[in-house]
Design a protein that fits this description.
mainly alpha; single chain; 75% helix; 97 residues
Length: 97
């Protein structure tokens, strides 16, 4: 078995249902990011003192959490989530100690 066939087995078959699901996931993430940014900015502009700055600091954090959640939902749609495949894909990641 050559390398091309081995890497091809890592991925699921992407049909129209998978593309629609990924598109809806992307659109939902974008809508949530925009809504959270506008909502948190609106809320922070009505607050005073140090709490205002803490609410402003939540904007990038919520954006990051939305993106991580969307990615966690999208990965099993594209990649067959078996232990062997996850080790193959995440193996090159090095966490410094």
């Amino acid at each position: 078995m050559d390398d091309h066939e081995q890497y091809a087995r890592l991925f699921n078959e992407l049909d129209s249902e998978a593309f629609i699901t990924l598109g809806l996931l992307l659109a939902g993430a974008i809508v949530l990011i925009i809504a959270s940014q506008r909502g948190l900015n609106w809320l922070a502009n009505r607050l005073h003192g140090p709490i205002r700055f803490r609410v402003f600091a939540l904007v990038p954090l919520t954006r990051l959490l939305i993106l991580i959640t969307a990615l966690a939902i999208a990965v099993p749609i594209v990649i067959e989530p078996s232990l062997r495949n996850m080790v193959t894909l995440l193996g090159p990641i090095h966490v410094p100690t």
